[in-house]
Design a protein that fits this description.
This protein is mainly β and about 120 residues long. The strands form 2 sheets. Strands 2, 4, 5, 6, 9, 10 and 11 form a 7-stranded mixed sheet that branches. Strands 1-3-8-7 form a 4-stranded antiparallel sheet, with no helix packed on it. The radius of gyration is 15 Å and the shape is elongated. The N and C termini lie far apart (about 40 Å).
Length: about 120
Amino acid sequence: QVQLVESGGGLVQPGGSLRLSCVASGSIFIVNTMGWYRQAPGKQRELVATMTTDGFTKYVDSVKGRFTISRDNAKNTVYLQMNSLRPEDTAVYYCNAELRVQLVVTTTMKNYWGQGTQVTVSS
């Protein structure tokens, strides 16, 4: 069973830091783009950062210079280092991965979501 498991969320004061981790496991043939999305109460889910297998990154403007996405391809793991956190960063952060998964006689490309991890920035 393919799944994504996030960890590292929590409560932090403004200006603090957190590091999120997401591990993809299961019958995975190829891992393509992995990234992070977030959803605050009453708001639409938005892309935070993504990274392709070969290292190309994309960030939403509001986190540029503060957040850094990285990957360990050998471990099918993606990280999000969050520095200089602000109250407006408060949200549930979801890991997302585009994976080619192994079936019985073939493979198929699918998008997977983690269960989400809460990040709260408050004094």
